[in-house]
């Protein structure tokens, strides 16, 4: 029977400004990418989300990003290697401390937004993030875009890599994500998303924004927690996967009932 991990970007609220419904998403996902304060999130909010995740046995990942609160980490940046390595270590370390206080631990790293998309192909920034993860804890898994060069680079460096697909994002023919500034980049219809992801799990294929068919081999599916229909998307996707006999299971082996 096939299995798949379901992850979401959480812990992104900031002070009195809420972002998404973390508590509801933590009832539905098997892994949670928790903001580390650079692109979103504040310490008290992050700690609270970690406590909820721990109570529900959801696996925790560090959602590290560029130092870009105003741009929500979605603006391209070019930090020096010294900065990027240190910033990544800093974020993972902060989340490790908060996770320990919440009775859980960080098991993987998933870069956020522009950093995620940049290191998918950029060898210098990819090497910096890989070096930072290895410096903190080489047993941490890296979550990366399925089919991107970063996957082989990280594996060659000795990291375990989990490839992911995006439930609510459109793809280009080269396997990259469609720029968020373009029409159709984000998919909101839960039924359409469920059909796309069931096919991806079953056939390892997905239809791109221009109608092409590409191979997509992923072990985890991401639903963005800040999408207005995130909870409905996750609920519909779980039902669709259950109907196909697919087991929802974290890639590190922790089950979510």
Tell me about this structure.
The mean pLDDT is 95. A 7-stranded parallel barrel has the order 1-2-3-4-5-6-9, surrounded by 4 helices. Strands 7-8 form a two-stranded antiparallel ribbon. By secondary structure, it is α/β, with parallel strands linked by helices. The chain has a single domain, classed as Glycoside hydrolase/deacetylase (TIM Barrel, Alpha-Beta Barrel). The radius of gyration is 17 Å and the shape is globular. Helix 2 (43-55) packs across helix 3, helix 5 (123-136) crosses helix 6 and helix 7 crosses helix 8. Helix content is 37%, strand content 18%. The chain is built from 8 helices and 10 strands. The chain has helices at residues 22-25, 43-55, 81-101, 113-119, 123-136, 149-156, 190-203, 230-243, and strands spanning 3-10, 31-35, 59-63, 106-109, 141-145, 161-166, 205-207, 213-215, 220-223, 247-248. Its EC number is 3.5.2.9. GO terms for molecular function: 5-oxoprolinase (ATP-hydrolyzing) activity; ATP binding. One of its GO terms (biological process) is carbohydrate metabolic process. Forms a complex composed of PxpA, PxpB and PxpC.
What is the structure about, briefly put?
Helix content is 37%, strand content 18%. By secondary structure, it is α/β, with parallel strands linked by helices.
